[in-house]
Design brief:
Blueprint lengths: L16 E4 L7 H14 L8 E3 L16 E5 L1 H11 L3 H8 E2 L11 E3 L12 E2 L3 E2 L7 H5 L2 E4 L10 E4 L13 E3 H7 L3 H14 L2 H5 L4 H12 L1 H10 L2 H4 E2 L2 H9 L1 H15 L7 E2 L2
Antiparallel strand pairs: 1-3, 2-10, 3-5, 4-5, 6-7, 8-9, 11-12
Bound molecules: iron/sulfur cluster (2 copies).
The site of one iron/sulfur cluster has 12 residues, from loops.
């Protein structure tokens, strides 16, 4: 079965989420509240839990879920969509994303920008054809109506899945039965999940629980995670590679692969912001 699209609501963990874009939900603070609510209120599902759902162009709500919705993006989401569009990260970020900020925010997050007309649509939805970046759509869009919650580090709670039962969505009237695992396989989530776990290891890092980043560190975090071309210039046009020991093969790959560059970026954040000895300084 093919799911052509995805809709709104709830949250994942620290990283990716699709949530209704009402005024209440648009701040990072309310995202945190949403997350807390998910952890408290939703039935917790495992990979073999079942649900009934279907999404196809014949549903009366086709595309409704791609308007007026908060889609939080992971770094890998940005890489996939901007490369599909063949534009730079800077262009993608300025045209297609917004950055909600809150005074207690621990790190920068970004969301897909909606159009500014009365429809408030995702820029990538075609009213007739659905999602125009379907093969590279973000994690949250793939997962809907399944959400994934990762409780804070240190909590005794285990990660779990939950269902987002939005009123707008008629997919719940369909009879196809899925396990969570089957749904995720069908939506080809694995690669996004693997990359999401790496990002989560950064955003749930104990350092961020106990420390605030300075504005300069926030900027570094943003550049590493979301602005890959600028980070690449930072790596290759500064003295960084003269100071940090890296093997030639990795350096070569970092020139052309955004994903390999991002892997190095996560190490760089751990090393430079969180003071972890994950990189070696040249003597
Ligand atoms: S990226 Fe695609 S699936 Fe996600 S909200 Fe936009 S149009 Fe919908
Ligand atoms: S069935 Fe749900 S997921 Fe599918 S188009 Fe309608 S609102 Fe979106």
């Amino acid at each position: 079965m093919i799911k052509y699209n995805k809709p709104p609501d709830a949250s994942e963990n620290d990283a990716t989420a699709a949530a209704p874009a009402d005024a209440e939900a648009t701040s990072a603070k309310n995202f945190a509240n949403l997350k807390k609510k998910v952890l408290q209120d939703h039935e917790r599902l495992g990979l073999d839990s079942t649900f009934h759902f279907g999404c196809h162009p014949g549903v009366p709500c086709f595309n409704d879920c791609c308007s007026d919705v908060n889609i939080f993006l992971t770094p890998y989401d940005v890489i996939r969509v901007k490369n599909r569009l063949k534009i730079t990260s800077a262009e993608f970020l300025s045209k297609y994303t917004v950055m909600p900020m809150h005074e207690k925010q621990k790190y920068p997050v970004i969301m897909l920008k909606m159009t500014e007309d009365e429809h408030k649509r995702c820029h990538f939805v075609d009213p007739e054809k659905g999602c125009t970046v379907y093969q590279d759509r973000p994690w949250a869009c793939r997962m809907f109506p399944v959400g994934k919650a990762s409780p804070e580090e240190g909590s005794s709670d285990e990660p779990f899945y939950f269902l987002m039962n939005e009123d707008v969505c008629h997919g719940w009237d369909e009879t196809s039965e899925w396990t969570v695992r089957q749904w995720m396989d069908d939506q080809n989530v694995a690669r996004w999940d693997e990359e999401g776990e790496k990002y989560k290891a950064i955003t749930l890092h104990p350092y961020l629980r106990e420390n605030d980043l300075t504005p300069e560190q926030m900027e570094m975090f943003y550049m590493v995670c979301f602005d890959s071309e600028r980070f690449r210039r930072f790596v290759f046009e500064s003295s960084l590679l003269q100071r940090i020991a890296l093997d030639d093969k990795t350096v070569r790959k970092m020139r052309t692969s955004d994903a390999v560059l991002l892997d190095f970026g996560y190490k760089w954040l751990r090393f430079s912001l969180f003071r972890e000895p994950v990189l070696q300084v040249k003597r």
